[in-house]
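forwarding from the other thread:

> can someone predict this with alpha-D-glucopyranose?

sure thing
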Amino acid sequence: MLIMCVACAASAYEFRTAGSVGDVKAAALLGRMTLREKIGQMVQVDLLALADKEHLARYAIGSVLSGGDSDPADISPKGWADTYDELQRYALKSRLKIPIIYGIDAVHGHNNVNGAVIFPHNIGLGATRNPRLVEQAARITATEVAATGIDWTFAPAVSVVRDERWGRTYEGFSEDPELVAELGAAAVRGFQSRRLSGPTAILACAKHYLGDGGTAGGKDQGDTVCDEATLRKLFLPPYQAAVKAGVGSVMVSFSSWNGLKMHANRYLITEVLKGELGFQGIVISDWAAINQLPGDYKDQIRTGVNAGIDMFMIPDGPPKPNNYVQFIELLEELVREGQVPEARIDDAVRRILRIKFELGLFERPFADRKLLNLVGSAAHRKVARECVRQSLVLLKNDRNVLPLPKKTGRIHVAGTAANDIGIQCGGWTITWQGKPGNVIDGGTTILQAIRRAVHPSTTVTYDTDAQGAPGANFTVVVLGEKPYAEGVGDRQDLSLPESDLQVLRNAKASGAPVVFILLSGRPLILGEALELCDALIAAWLPGTEGDGVADVLFGDYNPTGKLSFSWPRSMSQVPINVGDQSYDPLFPFGYGLRYTQKNAKR
Ligand code: GLC
């Protein structure tokens, strides 16, 4: 039985300021370390870049990560736990036996693990407007991550997404800074629990600092051009809230502000984040992000370290260039040459060690195998199903065609996305980009959920193009974006493809009422689709629990979802955000219909 520690939500997280138990221990250990051992702690090596596991001890490496595609051969929960424990055993052979901290992108569940529960991506959680539910989802994700030994998730993304052309729109909760701040802080509390040393607590990471969702044209890793007052108003509130919630790490953005790469921005990282906001945790770089800075590797390292970055994500090992051994050697040179003050190294390493002590890694460095059976549990799926229910937004319901009756002659289901877990989950699912198909065990497609929900006397038929719709009492068309992640998802035209419109035309031609369920990582330009359906539900990227969609479809849950993004009429309106001077979207921020009482139950 999963005891939800949601009551802890109100309590602040213990680790906050210098002088905590972890800090005292960190200072003592720091005093025993050589310069090279200190620098080793600032290195986070990707699992697939580790040239030799012995390097973990030889170079006193501080951290390992699994990037989107850096998986062990066995991606079962046990396979991940075995990999984690093996690496930890190597790390503990170092002179001072300092354990590694292992990071991964568990951004909508423990999404690299087969059989894990996959939650709706943040765009759907944003539509729930429910911080307690968001915290619960993060708490469950943390439990499944901790079960595999892993200590750190690179989540929540607290991007304030201002242009839907950005391929990472779905990783954001909203376009509105206050809503992002509220839900981001809830996720931090859920991941980190009341005590970081708790058995299922993991380190959270607010990302990507600062202004990642504000780039011109929504270009991934692009340039956010605005004055400081606008930057602070739009993008800083989520970090203020996350720091207040005790977030233990912040990831720097690949993007730039007014032409200066964030990874070189000492003012925003050191003076604003660490100084003004009082952030005491770890500032981590993004994936090889310092290699985008001017100069050679040594210049890039000096710039990043002096900007205030504490740990560096290094996806390359010897003999490749810009590798983790070179990083250590070059940074040692920079300190000896006086180009990087040793006090800067001490600040970084003290932050890293403090977190490791707070996590209890020195006392309990290995996976707690008792938790493994919780991964993908029915109790976890139940909460994920509730997240799906509350994330769906009813945008149209002519003649109250919804909710559908469970008992009717025939329901025809159409569309490639109706029976595809991979499309339902989207990017960051088993692989970095995600992909269509049966990518993960344990999920339920929308078609399977509909079949499970209807009365035994109701026939459910299915095809991809709705040619089989004639004669049915209702047609449910489920269409969706093919999975993508990061810049791969950047698009200049968000219109529905002609092939999707044709499916809707086929469905409408049958004469029966048409319900259109859209699976997407952002609002899309609907065009003719809006007239081709009688009812429309935005289901975002709901994850593995398709039953939550059927719950809304058949009225077992009366939809409560509210748009956390403005829905544009056409591309000429993009970007469009609540608060704009001239604001005339197809559906406004906060929009969402409910079933009327008379048709709420059928
Ligand atoms: C990626 C993303 C970041 C992620 C990191 C590790 O490029 O920008 O969100 O946490 O690399 O996978």
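The chain has two domains: 21-373, 392-573. thats all i got for now
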